[in-house]
Queue: 2 jobs
Job 1
Amino acid sequence: MSQFISLSSGSSGNCYYLQVDDYGLIIDQGLSVRKFKQICSNYGLSIAKIKAILVTHDHTDHVKGVGALSRDFRIPVYTSQAVHDSIMRNHFVSKKVPLNLQHAIERGIEFELGPFKITSFAVPHDSADNNGYKIRWDDKCFVLLTDVGHFSDDMPDIIHQATHLVIESNYDEHMLVTGRYPLRLQKRISGPNGHISNAETAVFLANNLNRDLIKKVWLCHLSAENNVPRIAYETCAEKLIEAGYILNGENRNVSLEVLARQTPSLLTDL
Ligand SMILES: [Zn+2]
Ligand SMILES: [Zn+2]
């Protein structure tokens, strides 16, 4: 049996949990350990089952609690060497990942952790480095792609393999340009190494999902300032429906959900 839950998604902390049988895998840990433990206990997740932590990139909202979780529970951390090095230099990460628990992964080379076969791919963003992950087990292919400056040429093929997909839908373009962010920050967010908009994600999904495979899409990392869940959902739903997907009712062929910023999602069987 496999399950997924988002513990938190957005600039105040990102943390996702995937479990197959008794093997738990955390992707990013941007929460304080106190908050992390509290959510685990509320949702009946056993920290003893967490066997590994994968990290996308070194921004604090993805790594704030990674060192503490790794050190306190002796859990190995897997990411690219550039991300490991940058976490070590990040002053907001007070507890560091012990050196003997740091494992460097090579981009594009599949490796195994318990039941999972994992491949990382490059995601453009203004961090030291940023990894998307394709995680396969049984007949499942779970893809996580967050903090996306722009969609690169190798992403359509990866998305096309997904049965389950977590993908960023950061901002609504109108809200960003009419909101209160200064122009410089607006440009950083919408630039090629910032974040991805609802409209860009919607078109990308409609063009590249594989309708014979895809079962579930979660929109993640919504901006608190420049997005609202309803707009993110409707922007994406409109493009998927235009492309022939059915999101509701008996004939539903894909399920679309928006991940909340502060509250965990439902624990979902995959
Ligand atoms: Zn982020
Ligand atoms: Zn980031």
Note: DSSP finds nine helices and 14 strands in the chain.
Job 2
Amino acid sequence: MPQIARSIAQAYSNLPRPHRVLLGSLSVITLAVSVWRPFIYQPESFDNDADNYIAPGIIAKAIQLESSQLRALTPEASEPLDQPLPDDKIPQDELDDDDKTGADVGVREYVVSTGDTLSSILTQYGIDMSDVSLLANKNRDLRNLKVGQTLSWELNEEGELQSLSWEVSRRETRTYKLVNGNFKESVEIQQGVWHNKLLAGKMNGTFVNSAMAAGLSRSEVNAVIKSMQWQMDFRKLKKGDQFAVLMSRETLAGKREQSQLIGVRVRSSGKDYYAIRADDGKYYDRQGSGLEKGFMRFPTLKQFRISSNFNPRRLNPVTGRIAPHRGVDFSMPVGTPVLSVGDGEVVISKRSGAAGNYVVIRHGRQYTTHYMHLKKLLVTPGQKVKRGDRIALSGNTGRSTGPHLHYELWVNNQAVNPLTAKLPRSGGLAGQDRTEYLAQVKQVVPQLQFN
Ligand SMILES: [Zn+2]
């Protein structure tokens, strides 16, 4: 080997100088090209319907390549690392549960739906792939999650996974706690008794107060609001409107442990609205049609190059501190129309320091989308928008290193990766799932009686 190297070196030094220069620069260019692989979004790998994106592995790999060494090579349209974007509070309304202090902080919950895998669920929240592998090796069953099961997990302040709970069934919960760099499994079997309870009442004041007066707990009220979020706005209910809620509650030694919403019926202005739970943990109307409204994957008509990716654990190389990038940056010319990705209500539309002109839209009760560095705002707070509506023109305002759109998607008060997150989809149950659901509806609907 040293001999070969020596002869190559000799041949090289024997070349005339212009040749040496040419050969040298060629090698550098070849090396640069082989290292430089910009992440360009490929439209065919996604479908607008969130369930159908292909090959998440490829995307995850590309995201890793789009990191600091690339940023050194190409000037990217993004935000300076030392300047976090504002963490502006979304205006709360009467339906929001402001009692989120204490045990709930840092705990995330997710109901498994069709096509989900442990890695697709956790990585969209920015959890490290190495943690996912550790978990999957701990219990191989975690590679076979079932639709409707619930996962909840806890992160520390650095965004690192501390524990994961897996509700295998109503009776069995497995917990994986991080101990000395590995996850320790424990199994808990619930001993309680489940029974159904009908709670009915009339609107008198806010829905939250009326429902609690009818005997629902605050978390049960939240479940009702969530189940109906795409078909009705509980703030619009009038005095005297009626509701009936069927809960399944677990009691252990006389104490209520947990509960699950089975079905809800609301009568407003003489019209009845229903949401009934299917085995997938989602709520549908009496025909099994989806109540959720679909989202677009991208907030623009055309797809633009990604100049910086979602990375909640991004490190500032200078300070060594975490400088999360809670959204995706799309490099685009100033003045590109920015579209709302789903039906919703504008909650913020204003100029702020680092974010420049920006818009926040609330979709249902669980989703918000954020659009920053805009040139021109086209909507005002309180305005209702439809999916695909123009809300602004893109720009380069605030702390921005080039014309781009910074786009964030939040689910249950947490930023997720907008490129891989499971999006709300329209559409209902089909085939065997629908048949089973309709049989369930036949059982539940007659029970939803008003007082
Ligand atoms: Zn950004």
Note: The pocket of zinc ion is lined by residues 78-79, 308, 325, 327, 329, 406 (CB under 6 Å).
